[in-house]
Amino acid sequence: PRGSKGEVAVTMAGLRCGLAMLLVLGSAPTDAFAPPGPSFGRFQVQAAPRLRGAHIERLGGALPSATRMATEAQQSNQEVLVRELKEELPQLMDASYTPKWDLYSSKVKFVDPLNEFDGVEKYKSNIQLLKDSPLFTDAQMSLHDAVGQDDGTVITRWTLAMTFKAFPWRPRVTFTGTSTYYMDDDGKVSKHVDMWDSIDNQSPFSLQALQDLVGQLLPDVTKRGVAAIKGGAAEEVTYTVVRRAPGIEVRRYDEFEVVETEEEGVYSKETYNEAKGLIRDYHGDALADPTNKEKKQLPVTDPVLQYDKGSGLTNLAYVHATSVRGKAPAPADGRLSVRPWGASLVAVKDVRGYGKDRTRSEASVQSGMDDLRKAVAAEGYLAADTNGEGFYLANYADGYELWLPVEPTARSLPTRSAQ
To answer: What are the strands, taking DSSP E only, across 237-343?
Structure first.
C-alpha cells in the first residue's frame, strides 16, 4: 500500500543509510591493530578537493545578488525569524520539544547534500528521523550564529551530532555547516538550504556527502584494539565541534585542569622520559605508588599534552579526571604544578587510528602543522599565539592530535552581507 509523504522521506533516508551500511561492512580494515612505531627527537611516543576559502564567500555564490536589497517588510520578517531561530534551533532535537511548524510554508523546500524534497510534512519527517528513529537517536543541535543578510535571507551556523544506533558500536556522527533560509511574502520560510563544511559538492545526492557519512560510521578499530590490548585511559576533555572540514576540526574545549612540568624543560629524549616519569610518579599506576603529597592514586587519562612555543623547547601536562578537578593533591616535586586550563577554541589535525602516520617524527609533525595552519587560514581563523608558532601535541595511545589555539574572524562566521 502507498505510504504517507512523511514515510517516503524516511524511506529515502533509510535507503541511503542502508547503502552506507553496505559500504561499511565491505570495507573494514584487517590490520588496524598495528601499533605506531617509536620515534625520537623533540616529540616522543607515549605508547606504541579543498573547501573554497571562508564559508561566507562560498555562500555568496548560492545567494541572490547582494544588490537585491530587502524591503522594509522583508527586513521586519527577517528580524522575527532570526529571533525565532535563536530560540528554536538549540532545542530542535530535544525529544520533548515540538518545533514551531508555523514558521514554515506548507510548501517549504528543503535541500542538503543528501536530500531534496518539498512540503512541511516531509520536513517534519526528516527532523524526526534524526531525532529518534530506527537509525538515529540522541541528536543534538548547537547554534553558533544566526544573522540576517542584506538580501532578506537568514544564515545560521551550526553543529549537528547524532548517534547511529543501527550498528552495535553506535558511532557518533557530526556535521557542521550553514543553513540559508528564504522567506515568502507572508514571512514564512519557503526554502531551507544546508551546506556542509566537510565537502565541496553540495548538490543533492552528493557522492562526497555519502562518503563523509560512511567514513563516520566506520568503527574505530585501532582505538578499540589498543584499549583491548593495553587498557584504555579515560578521555577527560570535553568539547563541541564548531567546524568540521577536510583536514581540520575547530573545537570549543570546556575548561579542564592539568598538572604540568616546568616550562621549556623538555628538549631531548632524556628530558622527555624524565618529565614523563615525574607525571607518572605523581598520579601513580599499577606498578608504583603515587608520590603526590596525599599519596593518592589518580585515574590515568588521555591526552598527555606537550606544548611547543615554536622554539623546540616543550613541557608536558597530564589532564586531571573530572572527579579530581578542584581538589587534586599537590605535587611533592617542585618541578610540577597544578593549574586550570581555561575554555579555549582550538583547531585540530587528527593523526589517530588506522592508516595514519602515527610515528610523531619531526618531519611528520612539521608537515602536519603546515597543513593545519593552511586549513586554519582557509577557514577564516587566526592563530591565537602572537607569533603563530606555538602549538600542542596531544598524545593518545592510538596516535596523536595537533592542536593550534585560534581566534575567530569575521570571515569565519556569517556576516551582515554576503560580501
So the answer is: 239-245, 248-253, 256-261, 301-302, 304-308, 314-319, 336-341
The predicted model scores a pTM of: 0.79
Q: Strand, helix or coil at 366? A: helix
The neighbouring-strand residues paired with 317 are: 260, 305
Residues 342, 326: Cα–Cα separation, whole Å: 13
> DSSP letter at 43?
S
Tell me the CA distances in angstroms from 238 to 235, 283, 316, 392, 416, one per residue in order: 8, 21, 19, 17, 32
SS3 for 200?
A: coil
d(Cα 395, Cα 317) in Å, to the nearest integer? 10
Mention every residue, 6+ apart, whose C-beta is less than 8 A from residue 204.
Answer: 111, 112, 113, 114, 115, 116
Q: How many angstroms separate the CA atoms of 271 and 48, rounded?
A: 19
- Give the per-residue pLDDT at 327: 95
Instruction: Give the C-alpha separation, 121 to 118, whole Å.
Output: 9
Please state the φ and ψ torsions of residue 406, each to the nearest 5 degrees.
Answer: -135, 170
Q: Return the closest-CA partner of residue 243 out of 318, 157, 326, 306.
A: 157
The residue behind cell 558500536 is: 169
SS3 for 400?
Answer: strand
In this structure, what C-alpha cell is assigned to residue 163? 548517534
CA distance 282 to 297: 8
Ranges of residues in the chain whose predicted pLDDT is under 70: 1-68, 221-233, 312, 354-358, 386-388, 415-419
Q: What is the pLDDT of residue 263?
A: 85
Check whether the bond before 303 is cis (ω within 30° of 0).
yes
* 236 within 8 A of 321, measured Cβ to Cβ: yes
Positions of E strands within 184-329: 189-196, 234-235, 239-245, 248-253, 256-261, 301-302, 304-308, 314-319
How many Å apart are CA 52 and CA 45, to the nearest integer? 35
The terminus-to-terminus CA distance of the chain in angstroms comes to: 50
Q: Cβ neighbours of residue 213 under 8 Å, at least 6 residues apart? A: 16, 17, 20, 114, 173
Q: Fill in the DSSP letter of residue 71.
A: P
Beta strand segments in 7-153, E: 104-112, 115-118, 136-148
